[in-house]
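#dry-run=false #mode=assembly
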Amino acid sequence: MKELEDVYPLPGMLTFGEVECLYRLGQINHCNGVIVEIGSWKGRSTVALASGASRVHDAKVYAIDPHKPLPVEGYTEDTEAAFMANIKRTGVADRVVPMIMTSEQAARGWNQPVRLLWIDGDHRYESVKLDFTLWEPHVVVGGIIAMHDTIRKKGPKRVLWENVFLSGRFQGIAIVDNITAVRKVEKRSLTGKLRDYLTLALRGVYIAARKSRVPYSKSVGRSLLKILTHQSWMPVILLVFTASIAR
Ligand SMILES: C[S@@+](CC[C@H](N)C(=O)[O-])C[C@H]1O[C@@H](n2cnc3c(N)ncnc32)[C@H](O)[C@@H]1O
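#status=ok
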C-alpha cells in the first residue's frame, strides 16, 4: 500500500502495525460522524487516519494538539510547524482540521458526532481520564474508540479498565501492539461478551509473556484471534495484530 509507505517514515512513536491499524480504522464507514484525534505531535497518526479516510469517505480528521513543549511528558519542542509541513507534504491537508489547543479547550462547545475517537495525548491518568470523559459522549453508537499506550503506560491502561472494560458499553476489543480499539454499543450481546473475555484473557497472557520474556506461541495467538473475528472490521484489525506479534 503506497500510502502506508509514505506514512511510516514520518517522525512519530507508532509501530508499523499501529500505523496500519489507524489507516484501517480511518476507513471505517458504518456510522456517521467525523474523526477526532487527541495528540498529533508531528502527524504520523494524523496522516495514517486521513489517508485511510480519503480512500472511503468524506469525513474530516480533527487533529487536536497544542503542539507546545510538555517536558513532564518528554515533549521538549514546539511541533506545530513540523505537523503542518507533514500533512501538506503527504497530501492530506484538505482532510485535516488542525485544532492547535488542548483537548479540553477543543471540547468546549463541540457539537459534532464522532465516528472514531483516537486518544494519544497526555498519558498521565487524570489527563487520559479527562480526554475520555469529555469526548466519549460524542462518539456515536457503533463508533470506535482507540487508545494508544494501553499496555505499557499506567494512565491509559487504568482508564481502559475503568471506563471501557468495566463499563459494559463497549464490545469487540481489538489489540494492535499498544493500541486497543473498541466499539461503542447500546447493549453488549452474550457472544460479544464471551469474545471480549477471551480477548482479554489472551491480552493477559500476551502481557505476561512479554514481561516474563517467556517465549509465547505466535501460532496459538494467531489461531485464537482468527476464531474471535466476527465483526466486519475485526478480521482486518486482528490480522494486523497477529502480523505485528509475529514480527
Ligand atoms: C505521544 S504524542 C502523539 C503522537 C502522535 N499520535 C504520533 O502519531 O506521532 C502526544 C501528543 O499529545 C499532545 N498533548 C499533550 N497534552 C494534550 C492535551 N491536553 N490535548 C491534546 N494534545 C495534548 C502533545 O503535545 C504531544 O504532541
